[in-house]
Structure formats: C-alpha cells, structure tokens
Design goal:
two-stranded antiparallel ribbon, 2 domains, Isopropylmalate Dehydrogenase, ten-stranded mixed sheet, alpha/beta
Length: 331
Amino acid sequence: MKLAVIEGDGVGKEVIPAALQVLDCFDLPLEKIPLELGYGKWEKTGQAITDADLEILKNCDCILFGAVTTPADPNYKSVLLTIRRELDLYANIRPLKPIKGIKGVTGNTDFDILVVRENTEGLYSSIEEVGTDTAWSKRIITRRACERIAQVACEYAAKRANHLTIVHKSNVIKADSLFLNTCRDVAQSHNVIHNAMLVDAMAYDMVRSPEKYDVVVAPNLYGDILSDLGGALVGSLGLLPSANIGEKKAFFEPVHGSAPDIAGKGIANPIAAILSVAMLLDWLDKPEQALIVREAVEASINENIMTADLGGNSTTVQVTEFLVHYVQSHC
C-alpha cells in the first residue's frame, strides 16, 4: 500500500509530520512517498503541480495532505482541484461533530452532521476567464456526478439515522434543479428519508438548530461553505478532518488552510490532520485503530493539552507528544 505524503505550505509542514507520528504508532505496511507540491514549489519552478507529480499520485493508493497557499494569480494551477479532478476523487466527506470539552460559538454540542460534498464540478470546474471589465466562471452540473454523490450520501445515511438533507438553490439557479431532483430520486430508491433546503436557509438553520441534521449532500461550493461554517459550530477549523474518496483511491486532509500568519511559530493545531489520519484508518478498514486516535484527541482536550485556538497554551509539539504517547499505550 503506497501513501503519498504532501506537507504543502504553511502549517502543513507542521501538522503533517505530527499526523505521521501518530500513524506510525500502528506499524502498518505503508510505503510513504513524499512529494513537494504547492505555492513553495510554484515559486521555485513556476509550477505548483506537474504531470510527473500526477503520475506519482496515480501510482499511489492514498494521499495524506497538509495545506497549500493559493495566490491571486490567474496562472496558478490549483493543486487541490487538479488532484481531485485527475484522480476522480468525487466525494468530499466532512464530519461535523463536537469533541467533548470544546464548545463552538453557539455552545450547542448536541449534533453530529456529515457533509457529503460533490467534489469534481459545479463552480469549481476551472472553466473561467478573467478580463478587465468582465469575468465569468462556468458552473457544470451533470446527472452522473449527482447520482454518484447521492449514492454515497445515501450509503452513509443508511448507516446513521437514515436521513438526508439535499442542499440547493434551484429557486434562483435553475441548474440546481438537476442536482435536487437526481438526489431525490436516488434517496427514494434507497428508502432514505430526505428533505431539501435552500442553501441560504440551510446556513441559518445549521447555526440555529444543528441537531436537526444528519447527512447533508450538496454541490461543490455549497458543501465547501457549509462545512467551514461547521468549524465555528464545533469550535475551530483546527478540529475538522476530511476525506476525498474515489472508486479506488482516497485523499485525506485537514479542512483548514495553510495559515501563513501562524506558520513556523509552533502553535498550529495538529488535531484536524490527526483526525484525518483516523479517517484514513477507517478507509483502510482499521476501525479499532481509528477509534484509538479519536480517543487520544478527547484525552488531550480533557487534560487541557490544547493549542491556542482552543483556549490552551500547548505547542504543536506538546499536543503531538501527548497524542503519540496515548496511542502507543493503547495499541
């Protein structure tokens, strides 16, 4: 099993080494393939990701990714969008579940939402043009993409509370009707209870009553925004992991960005990257090991071994050392 390891830029260079220390506790038969991608590579070579890099990734089974800085330059090729598209990692899975001991902006801890985001099209199609007076982006919605993301969402819903919320804006953006109707058809065929929410109403209601929601399926942009909003509900973007899943390959990353303002200061929260390792372990069919990682995170918070974004005063290294010790003593 080959695991590509991409630290990327900014705090990615701090949180991915931390995540690897936790992963290495389990002594799994993983061949790690380090790869440099992102803004730092673009500054040196003029390319953030090359065709050769993509070939390496295509020859790996899974990817552990940190974060990349994306400059406001029309010639910069998005690393994330390129990987997701080229490897057809069409399902972005983002759990929004509070961790005991941490409260978000509303104080509500009685929710467990799973955002299932279509990952390959929508407004992230990369078909766009920026001119002096006019700029446009082409938004693509296809039945095939809608069907397969709805299928994934329904499979998750069936394992949970069997409820699916379909997010759309078809009252204004008529292309959303294809997403909405296709998801409804798939949900009905799977006997999954479902409802639909306009994306603006959904954002409001997620803050007001997050406990109402189970699995949420959304087009690319809506899912991106709603899951980041979920970071405020959980307590920090530094707590949110994610997975990008395809038919045969998978890509795991923290939801947060490269955070250049705190990079190199030793205060980056490694928990999202480490919980992304837990999602990787689930994908590898190692649920017991994944559970140990999640219990380690809860233990660190219970012991107040936390970085500043969570109200603690521990460094990245101190949090990592605690988690590694916990995992080693429980596996």
